[in-house]
Write a structure and sequence with these properties.
By secondary structure, the protein is of the alpha/beta class. The protein is built from 5 helices and 14 strands. The protein binds zinc ion. The site of zinc ion (ZN) has 4 residues, from loops.
Length: 207
């Protein structure tokens, strides 16, 4: 059985999702913002070791603890277009503290099917919030970072953001057949059926 424990971390209360197959002692961490101690103690309580940090995008509030997890053996994944954000904060970048540079171990391009910690993980390139934003699909769950939120959608005014791309990516994710549980980058989780009806992006065209 796939289990997700979500921990809110850092000044912006970004969601860090600890995902595992309950039969195993390892996990992946999808987004790792600040508060590495909080993430490490949540993993300790579950009795799991982190095999990989999968970043939905490169913003500081989703990656600040990646280096601490890498230091204890996790591999760090990010889309190639956001890779540069892990080594420096650009002048146009967004940061209110908590940035820690980390070298990614794998650069994604979208379309991959990863097999880590006993999990089959599909990668979708869902640009719009940043050029290299991705959504990870595991079982009936989507982990979409700051692409969309419950009854809302992500900002597109940061470096690399694009409203048109955000809209196209949300259309794509909500067109996936079925009713996925959607774990977002901030706030509560939601699901495809609910967002098809209530996400305000529908007012900007077809979802
Ligand atoms: Zn972001």
């Amino acid at each position: 059985m796939i289990e997700t424990l979500t921990v809110s971390v850092g000044a912006l209360q970004a969601n860090c999702h600890i995902v595992r197959d309950s039969a195993r002692r390892d996990c992946v961490v999808i987004d790792a913002g600040g508060d590495s101690d909080k993430i490490l103690s949540a993993m300790d309580n579950l009795g799991v070791k982190c095999a990989a940090v999968l970043l939905t995008h490169g913003h500081f509030d989703h990656m600040g603890a990646a280096r601490a997890l890498k230091d204890i053996g996790a591999k760090v994944y990010v889309h190639a277009e956001d890779g540069y954000m892990l080594s420096r904060i650009s002048p146009a970048g967004f940061n209110i503290g908590g940035f820690n540079a980390v070298e990614p171990d794998a650069l994604l391009s979208g379309g991959e099917e990863l097999d880590i910690a006993g999990l089959k993980i599909k990668v979708y390139h869902t640009a719009g919030h940043s050029r290299g934003s991705v959504t990870y699909a595991i079982d009936n769950n989507l982990y979409c970072g700051d692409l969309l939120f419950k009854e809302s959608f992500g900002r597109y005014d940061f470096e690399g953001g694009s409203f048109e791309q955000l809209k196209t990516s949300i259309d794509m994710i909500l067109s996936l057949v079925g009713n996925y549980t959607i774990y977002t980058g901030h706030g509560p989780c939601t699901c495809s059926d609910y967002e098809r009806k209530h996400n305000p992006m529908q007012y900007y065209g077809r979802i």
